[in-house]
Amino acid sequence: MTAPQVLVLPGWHNSGPGHWQSLWASAYGYTRVEQHDWQRPLRGDWSARLEEVVLGTAAPVVLVAHSLGCLLVAAWAAHSRHTAKVAGALLVAPPDVARDELRPQLPGWAPPVLQPLPFRSTLAASRNDPYCSPAQARAYAAAWGATLVDAGEAGHINTESGLGDWPAGHQLLLALMKD
C-alpha cells in the first residue's frame, strides 16, 4: 500500500514560518497547497486549486487544514468527484464565517458547507478561539461527521498561540493516518 501524501491547507493569509503547519511541512516534507491569493480568498478558486493538487498526486492524500482551510475541505468535498483519494483530514480551528466581523472580509465563504465528509476526519478546536465558539466547533464536527478533540485553551491554534510545532496536533495526525 502506498503511504499517503500529506497536503497542508493554510487558512486566510497563509501560515507564516513559525506556524505549526509550516514547521510540519519543513520537518516532515509535507506539501503545502499554495493558493493564488492568500489575502482575498475566493472559495471557488481555492477549491479548484485543491482539486488540481489532489489530481496531480499519485498517492492517497491526507489533508491538514487550519482555519479557513477547514471550510475549504468541506466545500471541495461537496463538489469533487475525487474524494476517494482522501484517506483522512485533520481540521484545526475552523472559523465561524457567519460572524459579523468575518462575513464582509470573506465573501463567498458563508454559509459554510455543512454536510458529512466522505472520509475520516478529526476536528481540533480550542475553548478560547477568538474566531469560533466551542458550540460552533461542535456544530461543525457534527455536520462533517468529524471526531471532535478539545485542544484546551489554545486560542486560534496558530503562531500567536505559542504552540511551536504543536506535537499534540502531530500526534492527532499520526493517529488519523494509522487508522
Describe this structure in words.
- The chain has a 6-stranded parallel sheet with strand order 2-1-3-4-5-6, with helices on both faces.
- α2 (about 45-55) crosses α3 (about 70-80).
- With about 180 residues, it is of the alpha/beta class.
- It has helices at about 20-30, 45-55, 70-80, 135-145, 165-179, and strands at about 5-10, 30, 60-65, 85-90, 120-125, 145-150.
- The protein starts with a strand and ends with a helix.
- The model has no long low-confidence stretch (mean pLDDT about 95).
- The longest helix has 13 residues, at about 45-55.
- It has one domain (about 5-179): Rossmann fold, CATH 3.40.50.
- The chain contains 5 helices and 6 strands, in the order βαβαβαββαβα.
- Largest sheet data: 6 strands, parallel
> At CATH's second level, what is the architecture?
3-Layer(aba) Sandwich
Spatial arrangement of strands, main beta sheet? 2-1-3-4-5-6
User: How are helices and strands ordered from N to C?
Assistant: EHEHEHEEHEH
Which range does the strand content fall in?
15-25%
